[in-house]
Specification:
F-box domain-containing protein; globular; 6-stranded mixed β-sheet; alpha/beta; Zygotic_Embryogenesis-Asso
Length: 174
């Protein structure tokens, strides 16, 4: 079977918008990284996220919710520029796992981009769990949008909870 690539970036703007409107949220996030124009057009068609979570383990995980049964999870195993980004999608009763090849974009840039295109202004839940010591207050603040409601995971040892609370000062214990 011979396949020809779809010339997405060469479509006229009206056709491009119609094509974007047929895409799922995770597909929109993927194409929004291609160019400033794609980011702008994606922002015009993607639904606003209703929930957002970020968890710091020995890796970083963000989850974006679009309604009650539609979630996208991004998993980053490297802070610099991970070779792959792992994506899990839950839509209604379906669950899919994808592996995206990353083109030299840092985890921090990816997270900021995902928050921007999904229109996340407030992170609903932030969790620090075991082996999260490498995430300093400065790193976490640089990733998060402003005005966050935050939560410390109760699985952290007491001494680490105190360090996180001291560094951020505005956390709610959960």
């Amino acid at each position: 079977m011979n396949t020809t690539p779809f010339p997405l970036l060469f479509l006229p703007e009206k056709s491009l918008i119609l094509t974007l409107q047929c895409m799922e949220s995770h597909e929109l996030i993927a194409v929004s990284i291609l160019s400033k124009t794609m980011q702008k057009l994606t922002l015009s068609v993607i639904p606003q996220a209703q929930k957002s979570f970020i968890t710091f383990f020995n890796y970083t995980e963000i989850m974006i919710g679009f309604g009650l049964t539609n979630f996208i999870k991004f998993i980053f195993y490297d802070d610099k520029a991970p070779k792959y980004i792992y994506v899990e999608i839950w839509k209604d009763t379906e669950h899919h796992r994808l592996q995206w090849f990353n083109h030299r974009i840092s985890t921090q840039q990816w997270i900021k981009h995902v928050f921007k295109v999904t229109k996340v202004n407030t992170v609903t839940d932030i969790r620090f769990v075991e082996n999260c010591e490498r995430f300093t207050a400065d790193i976490v603040r640089s990733i998060l949008p402003t005005g966050n409601a935050t939560c410390i995971d109760s699985k952290l040892p007491h001494d680490k909870c105190e360090v996180v609370t001291y560094n951020f000062g505005r956390f709610i214990a959960c």
